[in-house]
Amino acid sequence: MASEPGYQYEGVSGVDALQVEKRYGEERAKRLRDDGGDQFIDLSLSIEFQSFIQDTWVEPSLVKNANIMFPDNRCEILILGGGLGGLLYAIRMIQVGISPKDIRIVDSAGGFGGTWYWNRYPGLSCDIESYCYLPLLEETGYIPRHRYAHGEEIRNYANFAAQKWGVADSAVFQTKANNLIWDDILKEWQVELVQQRKEEDLQTLNICAKFVATVNGVLNWPKVPRVPGILDYQGEVFHSSRWNYALTGGTPNDPSLTKLREKRVAIIGTGCTAVQIVPHLAHWAKHVYVVQRTPAAVDERNQRETDLEWFRKDVAISAGWQRERMRNFHQHFTTDKQPEINLVDDGWTHAVGMVAISGNAARPKTTDELPVYMKKLHAIDLPRQDRLRRRVEEVVKDPVVAKKLQAWYPTWCKRPAFHDEYLSMFNKENVTLVDTDGKGLDHLTADSIVAGGQSYPIDIIIFATGFRTPFTGSPAQKGNMNIIGRNGVSMNEEWARNGPSTQHGVLDHNFPNLFLSGPWQASISGNNLFSVDVLAKHSAYILAEAKRRAGRKPFSVTTTAAAAENWGTQVLMHSAPMAAITGCTPNYFNIEGDLDRAPPNMQMIMARSGLWGHGIEDFVRIVEAWREEGNMQGIEIQT
């Protein structure tokens, strides 16, 4: 780093880079807590908070009895997850020859959509351009209605895709897998499913599945802060992922929150979700208190309707247009050598600091190179973050409030936020920023929130506090289930002790016929669906080729021990570019700071278990080259 005061990065006149980095460190230190990730309550694991995660959207008539869906208690392919990721796994399997009738898709929700099924809060839309985010646009011919698709459109698109590829009738909703046990003799999985249909008794079903895919999402288990007195509060309260329109008024299609006109509402959190919700609350509620632990860095969004003529003339111009658009999208923040043409030209493609966790700037090979690497990252990123801090000053009229809304951390430390109205809401008389200086709420009383020793009477509390971190635990833990593989190996125990043993992140040596969906030992994009689709295509290829080689015999397919060891070593050797996340403001990226505090041996396992450090496009290049070779190197097929 710079060693003398007054050091400045090129292109940012008047900004002392050393002072900025010092401020980053100070703000981070305020937020570090001894309890790390334990400062939150995982609602799915807490009996007291089960009411927070009830399914209010389910239409019972659409949920088929699990016994009917498994007439002989078995299926060919069981996909755990009915979101767009699960649908992509089903569709890619169908495209290599699997019949839709041989697929079953299990989800605890009452319909397709995953995160877009559960999240229906006012203002909900995707933060990735819809022409990139919605998969299979070329195959379906669908044209998104807006540059950033609204939540209901995305959920409806999931249903549309399920119908188009014939898996709408393959879904087993309101159903969860509890236990998976591998049978090495029969070469299949013994699966315990539990279905809880609305107003019916719990039903347990034991089935057999030849192949299983775990595609249960990235952010799917809501959490709330462990605030003292949370159970003492007597007013109305809910989590943003289970929006209560009966309480607020409105619907997902018409967010007119008319029932809030005489209500004092507190929204806890200022992440990407709250940034979208706050403008709607501010428009309807008597008063809104926005409780902030860490400010969001909010850039312009520039939402607009899709011009059909423009789309056909400038977007869908030739075969492969969507893949090329995604490649161009990635190149703008996964490498320090950007292409001359910016096809997407949005906030993400100008957030070049994201290269720190998604790309390969400078590609440090050892920890000795990290200081120079970090200096380069800050030089890349500082102009954007400085511009966003100035944007706050330009939009927010009260200089005291504006100062509190400025984000003092690099772009790569939190998911970028984009909105055209969020900041201006703090100019309204009925909106109050409750800044906790990184500490969070003091406590709750029967009718108030308390922060910094000051009490605020509240009628409704909305927790926009996110989800369990996607970067810890195994797929089994992620799905709140047990998976027992070869020789009685528990996935939860094995991954906690040694991490995964995969090649390319799709098959673990200890768990045959079980296809994974990342992000462990794979890669990730700001557009998570693209990352999942990469693994869906890879899994479908491996399964189809294994079936061809095995003929009609029952078989198991997995990664060899040697291939898994080799790939894990490669992931470790390429992990240095990911080191930037360890010094970040606490958030789910770094497990609320726990990543920094892990002992050296555990940090080594985590690095070996983590993301491919040279970016998603480099990862795609590797797996596509592997498939092109056609020899299934590192894959073991046993009959």
UniProtKB/TrEMBL annotation:
<dbReference type="GO" id="GO:0050661">
    <property type="term" value="F:NADP binding"/>
</dbReference>
<dbReference type="GO" id="GO:0050660">
    <property type="term" value="F:flavin adenine dinucleotide binding"/>
</dbReference>
<dbReference type="Pfam" id="PF00743">
    <property type="entry name" value="FMO-like"/>
</dbReference>
<dbReference type="InterPro" id="IPR050775">
    <property type="entry name" value="FAD-binding_Monooxygenases"/>
</dbReference>
<keyword id="KW-0521">NADP</keyword>
<dbReference type="InterPro" id="IPR020946">
    <property type="entry name" value="Flavin_mOase-like"/>
</dbReference>
<dbReference type="GO" id="GO:0004499">
    <property type="term" value="F:N,N-dimethylaniline monooxygenase activity"/>
</dbReference>
<comment type="similarity">
    <text>Belongs to the FAD-binding monooxygenase family.</text>
</comment>
<keyword id="KW-0274">FAD</keyword>
<keyword id="KW-0560">Oxidoreductase</keyword>
<protein>
    <submittedName>
        <fullName>FAD/NAD(P)-binding domain-containing protein</fullName>
    </submittedName>
</protein>
<keyword id="KW-0285">Flavoprotein</keyword>
<dbReference type="InterPro" id="IPR036188">
    <property type="entry name" value="FAD/NAD-bd_sf"/>
</dbReference>
